[in-house]
Amino acid sequence: MLHGGAAPFDADMQPRLLLVDDEPRLLASLHELLRDRGYHLVTAGSGSEALAQLSRLRFDLVLLDLRLPDIGGHEIMDFINAKEIDADVIVMSGEVGIDAAIGAVKRGAYDYLRKPYSREELLKTVANALAQRRLKLENERIAQQLENSEKMYRYLVDSSPDIIYTLNHEGRFTFVNDRASQLLGYTREELIGKHYSVVVHEEDLERARYVFNERRSDDRASRNVELRLKCRTGSGHERTFNNTLMTIALNSIGMHVPDHDVKKHEFFGTYGVARDITDRKRAEELISYQAYHDILTDLPNRILFKDRLGLALIQAKRKGTELAVMFIDLDRFKLVNDTLGHVKGDELLQQAALRLKECLRRGDTLARQGGDEFTIVLPELRDRADACMVADKFLECLHQPFDLDGHQVHISASIGIAIYPGDGETIDELLRHADIAMYQVKGLGKNGHSFYHASMQDVSTQKIELERSLRNALENDELEMYYQPQIDVVTGRIVGAEGLMRWNHPQRGLLSAGEFLPFAEENGLMLPISDWMIGALCRDMLKWNQAATGPVRLSLNVSPQYLDRGDFFEKMRGALARYGIAPAQIEVEITENICIRNPQYAIEQLNKLCQLGVSVAIDDFGTGYSSLSYLHRFPIHTIKIDQSFVKEIHDEHGHYPVILAIISIARGLGMNLVAEGVETEAQARYLEANGCATMQGYLYYRPIALPDFIGALRAQAGGQGAVAIQA
After folding, report:
1. Within its chain, how far is the Cα of 329 from the centroid?
2. CB within 10 Å: which end of the chain, N or C, has fewer?
3. 299-452 homologous superfamily
4. Maximum pairwise Cα distance, the chain
5. Per-residue pLDDT band at 222 (split at 50, 70, 90)
6. Crossing angle of helices 98-106/73-82, nearest 10°?
7. Is 333 exposed, middle or buried (CB count within 10 Å of its CB: 0-12, 13-18, 19+)?
8. pTM for the full model?
């Protein structure tokens, strides 16, 4: 039924497509891909907007993202079905669960594309959907004409997209239409008089024999069955057909003696319509495959992995043998992903998966859990040494460099191993314990493997306790700011410092920011901690201003959560006024991910600070592929060279193009420049020779407490520079 009485699909008219995705970039990319291809395109950025367009206009095809912020894709498909809107739906989703795919198929989706999909796959799917739509509507037109003319009936039977045939009581063809020749390669003359078994696949003969020989009448005269029919191509190809079968009952007595009551039905033969569903079956198989496999690496996903692990556990229990479960996390993957971009990161995952797979035996299962994490089950383990040997193979194969379009990349892995039944008897226990063992390797320096031990559970418990005690750290005055001085290498003077938050934990001693701030981010504690930090920095600045002969600048690294709250500017202005700190001494430090959620609002906040007299620095510059855009969008005064680039400097006379490019950008834009993580004289000399004079790192100072920092300021004549705070 056509919604709103709109005209049916016309081949001469442009098909109207509705593109639905809440991600503006993806929606724009999809629109650009389909533009100028003879389609009339309408876009919707939310579920409610999609419903409004569907209620207002007729569409031939809807390209629908399942995950929308207001109304889910499944609900939109329910709306289409409830309103009997005549539009085909192609679902596009990044969800890895099988429920999303099954839900889409149940609601009548034409196809299911898993993100990220290829350009060719999308274009082919759209073209096929519209072609099938034309074919469907053409069939409807044909069906109407069949009622009007026997001559038209014969013509339409022969031009039908389905195979139409009749069999006599012996199962021999008495009629086939031209479609049989087009799809199967047999002429009508070759099939007439032949038994149906000549075209039925050998494995389906028994089922066909039962269907065609079962005598049906009355309401049970019609039935559906799927059979594979052989194609006469000479290559053994086959196609799957959905056969609608109808048993014809002829009342011979009634024909000859119409006045008498009908007493008997004599079986006459079978009339059938065979529809080619090969493409649909392949699409169903593809959807089923994708529901259980990772689309990027083609490895089993977590659902299929758990299924195979469950079967392996049953077998191990029956035979009384051991098995190993491994949890692998790639080290340095995030650095590669942030430096070279997500496309190269995906290529790295694909190459790593191939290498890991080559190390396994037949019967072992390698799966991708998500991100850069993999899981493995090794059934029928002889002893722990076998698992050790496989883990060593993994580490060795990953040690070799990866080539990503000319970029040589080095990674390693942290591997945790749990053994059944000693380390657990259930799927969840073994995975959890292998995960805990993997994190133990991470904590000990990465690039290795470790078997699970019950004592590791205590470490996991300590993390939970750390989270609890962090809530009391502010009340108990356990937080403190440390400062790592920055040096002007020309004069040798301290011109600034980077401040690092520390936690004086009552049991565990001094903890670095990386050991507790992630917990603060996850548990909503960054706001009060950031409030404390602003006050602590202002109080510290009063003390070091008294010790220094010149002003020392403070650069403040703000949490994204804190910037998004909206009162950061007011709190900063109030604190500066309360403690009498000049705004020119403050520099707010941002990173590339700080303004992802609301970049325009962040720009407004930073512009307010600049108008107040506060400057802005970009931290870890060059580690992400969008850094250059930030230099144009945000009011930036200082660029900080990330220590990952500085560490690559081994020869002061060498050539390090990334460093030179960053220095050139800073010069061209008239920005200040600071190098982080300087640890050797060669690094310092190379940076100075190429135009970077402000540095910090272990070559000069480690992070020091406020009294030591003030002592260092008093020990020299003074200077002017930047103090950065990592919160």
Report:
1. 17
2. N
3. Reverse transcriptase/Diguanylate cyclase domain (3.30.70.270)
4. 127
5. low
6. 10
7. buried
8. 0.43
